[in-house]
Amino acid sequence: MWGDFLSIGLRQISQRTISTASRRQLENRVPEKQKLFQEDNGIPVHLKGGLMDALLYKVTVGLTVFGTAYVIYELYVASMPKKQK
């Protein structure tokens, strides 16, 4: 019983993969990207991808600074003894 479901599922997946792969041709943009990233223009390689790279970099730096500050705050709170009532 399970073997039939498995073989039907595999057959559908393989037919779908073959049919979609033959319909679309992907353009090879590797030489363009290589030229862009190897250009000596003073921009760090992690920012050469454009606006999305810059945005991702700034978000990462912001989260890192916020996380570090939060950890320091929590360590400070944890190191202080609680007041007795």
From TrEMBL:
Q: Does the keyword Membrane apply?
A: yes
What keywords were assigned to this record?
Acetylation, Membrane, Mitochondrion, Mitochondrion inner membrane, Oxidoreductase, Transit peptide, Transmembrane, Transmembrane helix
- Pfam families reported in the protein's UniProt record: COX7a
Q: Is Transmembrane helix included in the keywords of this UniProt record?
A: yes
What organism is listed for this UniProt entry? Athene cunicularia (Burrowing owl)
State the family it belongs to.
Belongs to the cytochrome c oxidase VIIa family.
* Upper classification of the organism: Eukaryota, Metazoa, Chordata, Craniata, Vertebrata
**Which biological process annotations from GO are given for this protein?**
mitochondrial electron transport, cytochrome c to oxygen; mitochondrial respirasome assembly; regulation of oxidative phosphorylation
- Mind telling me what this protein is named? Cytochrome c oxidase subunit 7A2, mitochondrial
Gene Ontology terms, cellular component aspect?
mitochondrial inner membrane; respiratory chain complex IV
> What membrane topology term does the record carry?
Single-pass membrane protein
GO MF terms held by the record: oxidoreductase activity
* Cellular compartments annotated: Mitochondrion inner membrane
